[in-house]
Design brief:
Serine Threonine Protein Phosphatase 5, Tetratricopeptide repeat, 5 strands, FAD, mainly alpha, DNA Cyclobutane Dipyrimidine Photolyase, subunit A, domain 3, FAD binding, Crypto/Photolyase_FAD-like_sf, five-stranded parallel beta sheet
Length: 458
């Protein structure tokens, strides 16, 4: 009797550099690869609509990759740990492997599963597959989590070099017959009534192979110009964020490809700046690890007393759909709606406008991005929103209010980005601004100052 190995995939939808899959193939028994759509485990945030679209196509690509190597992708739906334990019982599995997650509820579920499996005589092991540096390994001299990015970044660079990627197995011995599996279509991850994903299909090629193609194009064509990444019309960013979010490419693969690959002289000069952004992702995960409620609670508790305004429904709808009368804000929100992403510089501008010009609680914007971004990430999304609000770790100063007009003048001087997404900007069809930028900025600064006085910080 054989005792197959189960590989439970979550945010690591790839065959290459997958430590859990590598361990399963090294064990030498047949392999069951399973993904569980978990909308039920308390504390684990269900995916937003845009992420579900991406997930459908990512699982399709992964299933094809596994089939080419001799294995199958098993799909289940329910509480993830419960479904994996059931699968282990049904198949007589001798081992279960997975790559670690870092949210508290996920960690608790994984720890309980590991205990339960081991008590039942099943080997259970977790691996470092999604972060270059485990959160508990990069700490201050006093043994506490970093609260400021720059010293965290230095500590990462001074620590042990991240491991090299594992090779993709050429063959995976699948179980025959394959375990019972859901039909992916039954999960209804794709929008139908209405089908709002036309722009997504035009913009994105999903899956592990696509992720590596995107990386190579970036290194060849855009990394040398990465210093101009703040200019949204030039679009010299990597476009890797959704692939990293779903683990179609690992940070280890990106790190070593950039550090050790053959690059042009111009690209080499920008490599450190790009990898610094990879470490920013690591920083947000370290913050999440220490602050599990990052998406719902202010990191800085003095912000609990901030006088958020009750958002006007019309203003909120105008912001969500790019009808605020502020061209750069509207361009960014329309880019998001059409493609599932937004240029990073513009993300900061639209976030500042919502929080500081409209005085809307950052959690409202974070939730909208969670639902509409294909790269909605449990650490980056709330971490970056709190950065803009001033309530987060290493946050922007509370008095920094991005002026969207000045930002457009500086970073979109020829209005290429704005006119691409707001073609009617110079016509009578374009609305008047929903708020006066100067007056609303002053009102926001007064509110921040009042909050600080009440907290004894002024």
């Amino acid at each position: 009797m054989t005792s197959p190995s189960i590989v439970w995939l979550r945010d690591d939808l790839r065959v290459g550099d997958n430590p859990a899959l590598h361990a399963a193939t090294e064990r030498g028994e047949s392999v069951i690869v399973v993904y569980v759509l978990d909308d039920e485990t308390p504390g684990i945030r269900p995916l937003g609509a845009a992420s579900r679209w991406w997930l459908h196509h990512s699982l399709t690509a992964l299933s094809d990759d596994l089939r080419e190597r001799g294995a199958h992708l098993t799909l289940r739906r329910g509480r993830g740990a419960d479904e994996v334990e059931k699968l282990a019982q049904q198949t007589g599995a001798g081992a279960v492997f997975w790559n670690r997650r870092y949210g508290q509820a996920a960690r608790d579920a994984d720890a309980a599963l590991k205990t339960s499996l081991r008590e039942a005589g099943v080997d259970a092991h977790s691996f470092q597959g999604s972060l270059l540096f485990e959160p508990w390994t990069i700490q201050t001299g006093s043994g506490t989590p970093f609260k400021v990015f720059t010293p965290f970044y230095r500590a990462c660079l001074e620590s042990q070099e991240p491991r090299h990627p594992y090779p993709a197995p050429s063959h995976i011995a699948g179980v025959k017959p394959a375990p019972e599996s859901d039909d992916l279509g039954s999960w209804a991850l794709l929008p139908t009534k209405p089908d709002w994903a036309g722009g997504f299909r035009e913009r994105w090629d999903v899956g592990e192979a696509a992720a590596h193609r995107v990386l190579e194009v970036f290194l060849k064509d855009d990394l040398a110009d990465y210093g101009d990444r703040d200019f949204p019309a030039d679009d010299t960013t990597s476009h890797l964020s959704p692939y990293l979010r779903f683990g179609e490419i690992s940070p280890f693969q990106v790190w070593h490809r950039v550090r050790e690959g053959r690059l042009s002289d111009g690209a080499k000069k920008q490599a450190a700046a790009f990898l610094r952004q990879i470490v920013w992702r690591e920083f947000n995960y370290t913050v999440l690890f220490a602050n599990p409620d990052l998406a719902t609670a202010n990191y800085r508790d003095e912000f609990d007393g901030f006088p958020w305004a009750k958002p006007h429904a019309a203003d909120l709808e105008a912001w969500r759909h790019g009808r605020t009368g502020i061209p750069l804000v509207d361009a960014g929100m329309r880019e998001l709606w059409q493609t599932g992403v937004m240029h990073n510089r513009v993300r900061m501008v639209v976030g500042s406008f919502l929080i500081k010009n409209l005085l809307v609680d950052w959690r409202v914007g974070e939730q909208w991005f969670w639902d509409t971004l294909v790269d909605a990430d449990e650490a980056n999304n709330p971490g970056n929103w709190q950065w803009v609000a001033g309530s987060g770790a290493d946050a922007a100063p509370y008095f920094r209010v991005f002026n969207p007009v000045l930002q457009a003048d500086k970073f979109d001087g020829h209005r290429e980005y704005v006119t691409r997404w707001v073609p009617e900007v110079d016509t009578d069809d374009y609305p008047e601004p929903i708020v006066d930028l100067k007056e609303s900025r002053a009102h926001a600064l007064d509110a921040y100052a009042d909050m600080r006085r009440k907290a004894g910080l002024a």
